[in-house]
Amino acid sequence: MECEMCGKKVATRRYMVDKTVMNLGIECSKYGQPLDGTAAAGTQASMHQNLERRAGRMTSRNVYDAQDVAMVLVDDYGPRIHKAREAKGLTHDQLGNKVSARVPELKHIEAGKLRPSDELTKKLEKELGITLMERIEGPPPAVSGVKKPGPKQGLTIGDLLKDALEKKGKGK
Fold first, then answer.
1. Residue ranges per structural domain of the chain
2. 69-137 belongs to which CATH class?
3. Quick one: which H or E segment has residue 77?
4. Is the model's pLDDT at 70 over the cut of 70?
5. pTM for this structure?
6. pLDDT band at 115, cuts 50/70/90?
7. What pLDDT does 17 receive?
8. What is the C-alpha separation between 159 and 168, in angstroms, rounded?
C-alpha cells in the first residue's frame, strides 16, 4: 500500500486527519486518529493492545471441567420418531422435506441403525413435538476395564498397555 500523505510504499491503516479519512503509514500516523479503534503501530498503546490480545489467546481452558451436565440421545429414539411420524400422518418423504433429510436416512434412523446428528435431532424434536435428548447430570460415564487416574494425574498410553497386558495374562 502507499501512504496517502508522504507517498511511501509501506503498510497502511485508516486514520482520520482533519475530518478526512486517509491511509497512512507508521511515520505519518502521528498526524491522525486511528479509525479501527486500535492505536498507531509502534506506539506504547499499540504494544499494550497487542500484549492484551496475545494474553487472551494464550489462556487455556479445560473442556472437561466446563460443566457436569450433558445432553445425550435417548436409547429408544427410533421407535419414538416412528410413532410420532405416524401419529402426525406423515410419510418418510414428507418428514424428510420438513427436516431436510433423505428418506433412506430417516428409515435407518427409525430402525435404530443410524444415530441422527445433533442438528437433525433438534429438527426432528421440533417438527414431531417429541423429546429425543435427555439431560444427564454428574460425571461422565467411566470407561470399563481402565483404572481410574488419581487426582492431578491423567491416563497415559502406558496405563492402557499395562491394563491390556494384565488382562492377557489372566486370560491364559
1. 13-58, 69-137
2. mainly alpha
3. helix 77-87
4. yes
5. 0.44
6. very high
7. 87
8. 14
